[in-house]
């Protein structure tokens, strides 16, 4: 919601019900699609409320105010039929069915587009390293096995909202050493942790009111915070962020996270993106197995299609201002307003080579893609193209409306060659911009 205006009108009619009209295909300069939203308090209650069987321990519990959005929607207007939830038709068997909830305007799932229940929705499944299903009878059993194996020092690959994570105990020196050995490029780099609740975080790190707000916001980013003295005494291994005085921390944001902590206990977990060097993290199960077979001891995967890959966002607060280090889940596809008016119907920017983010311009609004990574492999390059054109499609910008392409001045970056190709294809200009000059402009 960008603005609300209230107007009083005189009427003699009496209103008896509320209808939501079918979305019309139309377009403006903005997107009506929000970023992914962390599970809300009400859904969290459903998750743990035994008497509501359809949501009790159901990891995908969601409603009209929470759940996946950007990662699951493939076109606008934002409706279930244009999201990957289309694979899971709402159940319609009895009076508590999802269809009833969807149609009842007193229900908080009234016209919610990405919800489902244990009867009709996506499910988790355990696999061993050889892709064999580990037979289980219930989500409870899945969680028990996962918790037991993690608590005994194993590394799990867990598929979530926008991708897959490698998780293990953050207190265990041995498993961290093992993880660093397996993730060869991560010999010394710090890992982010997820902590079950704020009260536990208070023993580990120092945070301000602003940082607390960010940690608990619907965006649930990784916030980089100063370690507390003594935080390494048995609670966190020295191997989490060796030699550093700060650490990246986040709170749970999906049903599966809360359920895992319910079974594992009130301990912190390493929660690091499940990818190998220079490749984007897998979002399809096949790709996840392929990439992580040498890294994870077992896999906890679900059968919901992730349409857009989105890493966790990373930020720090400096002088009470948010500094985004990695802008991704919880922020994309929000726009950044330019501080001046421009009459450009559309433009694309392909970015440099390291830590790339693409961007789409519509009038004076810049829509950055999610964090892409280093364009050093075909897979990452394809990820950039896919994310860029996804935003262009969501904004319904036609090819003929693209007025120019912006790119880095470096002649041998893939992104520069790509900008040239696009410019030729559309018969428009491309503008190479010197890298550091672009940084300077970014500050103005
Ligand atoms: Zn909810
Ligand atoms: Zn259902």
Automatic annotation (TrEMBL):
Q: Which organism is it from?
A: marine sediment metagenome
Q: What PROSITE patterns does this protein map onto?
A: YRDC
User: Which first-to-last residue range defines the signal peptide?
Assistant: none
Q: Which positions fall inside the YrdC-like domain?
A: 140-330
Annotated GO molecular function terms are:
carboxyl- or carbamoyltransferase activity; double-stranded RNA binding; zinc ion binding
What is the name listed in the Swiss-Prot or TrEMBL entry for this protein?
YrdC-like domain-containing protein
Give the Pfam families listed for this entry. Answer: HypF_C (PF17788), Sua5_yciO_yrdC (PF01300), zf-HYPF (PF07503)
NCBIfam families given in the database record = hypF (TIGR00143)
**GO biological process assignments:** protein maturation
Q: Which InterPro entries match?
A: Carbamoyltrans_HypF-like, Carbamoyltransferase_HypF, DHBP_synth_RibB-like_a/b_dom, HypF_C, Sua5-like_dom, Znf_HypF
């Amino acid at each position: 919601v960008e603005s609300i205006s209230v107007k009083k009108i005189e009427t003699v009619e009496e209103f008896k019900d509320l209808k939501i009209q079918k979305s019309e295909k139309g377009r403006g300069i903005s997107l009506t699609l929000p970023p992914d939203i962390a599970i809300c308090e009400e859904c969290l209650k459903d998750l743990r409320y035994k008497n509501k069987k359809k949501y009790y321990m159901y990891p995908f519990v969601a409603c009209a105010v929470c759940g996946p959005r950007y990662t699951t929607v493939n076109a606008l207007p934002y409706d279930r039929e244009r999201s990957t939830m289309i694979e899971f038709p709402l159940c319609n068997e009895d009076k508590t069915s999802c269809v009833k909830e969807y149609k009842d305007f007193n229900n908080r799932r009234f016209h919610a587009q990405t919800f489902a229940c244990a009867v009709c929705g996506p499910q988790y499944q355990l696999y061993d390293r050889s892709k064999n299903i580990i037979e289980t009878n219930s989500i409870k059993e899945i969680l028990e096995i996962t918790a037991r194996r993690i608590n005994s020092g194993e590394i799990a690959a867990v598929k979530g909202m926008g991708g897959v994570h490698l998780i293990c105990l953050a207190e265990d020196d041995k498993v961290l050493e093992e993880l660093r050995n397996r993730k060869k490029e991560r010999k010394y780099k710090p890992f982010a942790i997820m902590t079950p609740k704020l009260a536990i975080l208070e023993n580990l790190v120092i945070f301000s009111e602003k940082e607390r707000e960010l940690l608990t916001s619907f965006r649930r980013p990784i916030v980089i915070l100063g370690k507390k003295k003594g935080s390494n005494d048995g609670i966190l291994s020295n191997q989490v962020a060796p030699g550093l005085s700060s650490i990246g921390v986040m709170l749970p944001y999906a049903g599966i996270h809360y359920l895992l902590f319910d079974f594992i206990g009130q301990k912190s977990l390493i929660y690091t993106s499940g990818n190998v060097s220079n490749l984007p993290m897998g979002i399809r199960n096949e790709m996840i197995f392929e990439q992580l077979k040498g890294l994870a001891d077992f896999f906890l995967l679900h059968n919901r299609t992730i349409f857009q890959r989105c890493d966790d966002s990373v930020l720090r607060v400096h002088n009470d201002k948010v500094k985004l280090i990695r802008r991704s889940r919880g922020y994309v596809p929000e726009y950044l307003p330019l501080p001046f008016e421009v009459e450009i119907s559309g433009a694309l920017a392909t970015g440099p080579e390291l830590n790339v983010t693409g961007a789409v311009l519509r009038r004076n609004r810049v829509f950055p893609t999610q964090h892409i990574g280093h364009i050093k492999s075909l897979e990452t390059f394809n990820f950039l193209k896919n994310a860029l054109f996804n935003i262009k499609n969501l904004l319904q910008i036609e090819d003929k409306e693209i007025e120019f392409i912006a790119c880095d001045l470096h002649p041998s970056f893939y992104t520069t060659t790509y900008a040239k190709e696009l410019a030729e294809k559309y018969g428009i200009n491309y503008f190479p911009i010197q890298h550091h000059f672009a940084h300077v402009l970014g500050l103005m």
